[in-house]
Structure formats: C-alpha cells, structure tokens
Write a structure and sequence with these properties.
By secondary structure, the chain is mainly alpha-helical. The chain has 5 helices and 2 strands, in the order αβαααβα. The protein has helices spanning 2-19, 35-63, 65-70, 75-91, 103-124, and strands spanning 25-28, 97-100. It starts with a helix and ends in a 6-residue tail after the last helix.
C-alpha cells in the first residue's frame, strides 16, 4: 500500500514537472490524445522511477557515502538527477515514457520532484499516537 501511495505522489510530481516548460521534461503517453492513457503512463513511469530509486539509488547512496559527507549532502541533487535520467533511459526503449532533454535539467526536475515528495510526505505522514 505504501508503494502505491508513493507511486501516485511521484506521478503527481512528474506531472507538475512536465508543466514547467523551460525544464524540457515530458511524458509521452502510449496512446496520444487520451487523458486516461496519459495518467496511466504517468503512474507506470512513477512506478519505474520508484523501483530505480529503491534499487539503484540505494546502491549509489552506499557507494557515494564519502561524497555525501564531503559535499554536506549536495551530491544528492546530482544522484537524484541521475536516477531520473536512468528512468528516462529505461523508458526510452519503448515509444512512450519519460523524456529528459539534458542531464542538468533533469537535476533541476529531480529537485522539484524531491520538494513535492517532501511536502506530501509531511502531509500524509501517519500521526503518532499520544
């Protein structure tokens, strides 16, 4: 259930990023012109991004731990952009999916996605029982 909620939040964040025109990040639906296909494509891409972030992101964060300390955590922006770029690369094998124009614009898009995920994480966090 938690994975599904995170995938929906990621899909919303991806949709917000695609609305920001200067970032040149887009999602190509598997059937053009239909809203349902666009939403399903966003959910599939968000699920792929969540899996990439869970598997590859964990490995990269463990290996790059000294860089996290050295840069006081700022390397996480580049790592998140790289994970978004990997997601775009993986969905690039089919005719639909995530398209990221350049790596550094992907870093900015990943920053925006992280901020949206942080805000929703605070809002949707279960309340502790007193």
């Amino acid at each position: 259930m938690r994975f599904l909620i995170r995938a929906v939040i990621n899909a919303f964040a991806l949709w917000v990023v695609t609305l920001i025109d200067p970032l040149r990040v887009s999602v190509v639906p598997f059937a053009p012109g239909e809203t349902l296909q666009f939403v399903l494509t966003l959910l599939i891409v968000a699920a792929i991004f969540a899996v990439v972030n869970t598997i590859i992101g964990t490995i990269i964060r463990i290996v790059a731990f000294p860089l996290y300390i050295l840069t006081l955590g700022l390397i996480s922006l580049v790592v998140n952009g790289f994970l978004l770029w990997i997601t775009a690369w993986l969905t690039g094998f089919v005719s639909w999916g995530l398209r990221v124009e350049s790596f550094w614009l992907g870093v900015v898009a990943a920053l925006i996605i992280s901020v949206i995920n942080f805000i929703f994480g605070i809002v949707l966090r279960p309340q502790l029982k007193r």
